[in-house]
Amino acid sequence: MTLGPIDASLVAPFTDPEVFARVCWPRMQAAAGTWVLLAPFALACSIEPNYTNPDGPRCYGDYAAGEPELGDVLRAVSYNLEFGREVETAIAALETEPLAGADVILMQEMEAGGVEAIAAALGLRYVYYPASVKHGRDWGNAVLSPWPMRDYRKVLLPWADPYTNSRRIAVTATLEIGGVDLAVYSTHTATPSLGLGARLDQIEAILDDAGDSAPVAIGGDLNTADPGSGGQVRELFGDRGFDWASDGATDTGSAFGSDATLDYVFTRGLTPRRSGTFAGDSGSDHQPIWVELEPPP
Amino acid sequence: MIHRCLLLVAMTGCASYSSRLDATPLPPGAGELGVGLDVLLVERGRDYIPLPVPDFTYRRGVRPGVDVGGKAHLTGAQAGVRFAIARRDRLAVAWAADLALGYEPITNNTTDLVYARALPRLVGELRGRGGGPTWIAAVAPSLTFTGPATMFRGIAGAARFIARPGAALGARWPLDRGRSLWLEVTAQPAYAFGDGWLRSAYQGGAAVTF
Predict the structure, then answer these.
(1) How far, in Å, CA of A222 to CA of A203, rounded?
(2) What is the pLDDT of residue A4?
(3) Are B106 and B11 in contact (CB under 8 A)?
(4) Angle between helices A196-210 and A229-239 (to 10 degrees)
(5) Which of A237, A256, A259 to mutate to test the interface with B (most CBs of B within 10 A)?
(6) Which of B5, B7, B59 to mutate to test the interface with A (most CBs of A within 10 A)?
(7) How far apart are CA A259 and CA A287, in angstroms?
(8) Which residue in the set B7, B108, B150 is minimally distant from A195, CB to CB?
(9) Between the CA of residue B35 and those of A239, B38, B133, what are the distances in Å?
């Protein structure tokens, strides 16, 4: 097949300034005007209420039967259960190897009822703080563990989502594991709708809260969905002396149509052994990750 | 793959700081269309990232020594007027003032999604001899009001003013049939009122006008 010459009238608006000024420019002006008028409405997403009181609301419960035996490994799990919906699926997953018998479970996107149900089913202590309300439901983070738990707090993270105004938090607690205090943080930093610099500020707020303490474990959904963000997040933790303990746990969710590593556990003062991504049904848009650590000395 | 392409397209929707103006307004009734491709170097997280910025310009002379025009890129546009101030031999000076509006769907560092920017510019040119390039220098400061989309719902705590004492250097080579090739680089230091100095943005690229 051969193509004939291009009709000059088709390209005239792009090659002849006179035609462009008469035909295209008024339409571009009209389109720009329409855009300016409509943009505020298009950008006005629903505002999500936040729980900005640093003291609460807080939920704590104790379903543990005594104190467990310290094994030869310490197992930590981070689990983003999408909107805290499929709690029964989460319980089944947490009863399945390699998640079963975890010493600490860091959960995100949870409601209080779901956290309590998991703690009751698995015989765990828990603390839970909601960060905000999404789609009419509380939405927050939890720490669950069979070990004695104290000094639990909510850490308010800086910056609000530029579309919804939702704020993010970390939930921290001190676990008494075999006579050693282990500080843990369960966090869920903002999505890429908040700029990467602000998301790094959120992580720095957690790192500042942890100070120089050790041993310490920080885990959760860090939303490293956008290109290059994972590297900067890992570098930031590395600069503060943390190991990427979950380096074997990749492809924990999806971003922009591809598998992506969104969930992490970083530790300091603990020796990571191995880690991985749970391969079974998670009931979520994330797969839980697990980390095996040398027990605290 | 489609999602990644969409992401790339979205990332080209960043602000554009190019001037692409010399100091000679178009004669009345004359029009000039331009197509350019720049690389914008901006801070993202704690590092710099290069982003492509395609843009389109159009100017039209309205009176002797005065023309109007604008520039559009994927998610923003600006329009303004240029006045000739002085001309002597090969030297000329013009003043231009533009207003830019834009929306950056993926902001690099904070919550600055929506912006309105005032851009007064003082442009000087040294016209080339015998088909040589015209050299252009511009003092291109700007004042930007920017903030999150929640401003439209009354939550504007993160909104702020950013002043950029920017400058640009460029050159324009005449081509055949009235076309020109432009090269330009610009540096845009940034000071956010209340937050202090931000890392500078840099932009450079080429354009063809006809």
Answers:
(1) 9
(2) 42
(3) yes
(4) 20
(5) A256
(6) B7
(7) 11
(8) B108
(9) 44, 10, 19
Asked if the Cβ–Cβ distance from A232 to B3 is below 8 Å, we say no
- Residue A96 sits at φ, ψ, to 5 deg, of -110, 140
CB contact under 8 A, B44 and A196: yes
> A25 pLDDT band (50/70/90 cuts)?
low
Strand ranges for chain A from DSSP E: 59-62, 74-80, 104-110, 125-134, 137-145, 149-160, 167-177, 180-188, 216-221, 243-244, 253-255, 258-260, 263-268, 272-277, 289-293
CA distance B13 to B106: 8
Nearest CB to B31 within list A17, A47, A193: A17
Residue A286: other Cβ atoms inside 10 A:
22
Chain A closest CA to B69's CA: distance in Å? 10
Q: Does B101 touch chain A (CB under 8 A)?
A: yes
Instruction: Output the pLDDT for position B6.
Output: 54
Of A28, A39, A197, the CB nearest to B72: A28
By the CB < 8 Å criterion, does B103 face chain A? yes
Do B203 and B164 form a contact (C-beta atoms < 8 A)?
no
pLDDT digits (tens, 9 = 90+) for A110-160: 999 999 999 999 999 999 999 999 989 999 999 999 999 999 999 999 999
With beta carbons less than 8 A apart as the criterion, state whether A128 and A144 touch: no
Reported as half-sphere exposure (CB side, CA atoms, 13 A), residue A201 has a value of: 17
* Chain-chain contact of A195 with B112 (C-beta, under 8 angstroms): yes
pLDDT bucket at A66, cuts 50 / 70 / 90? confident
Query: Looking at CA atoms only, how far is residue A196 from chain B in angstroms?
Result: 5
- Write down all domains in chain B, each with its CATH number in brackets: 2-209 (2.40.160)
Cα–Cα distance measured from residue A267 to residue A247, given in angstroms and rounded to the nearest whole number: 11
| Per-residue tokens: B180 | 């020109």
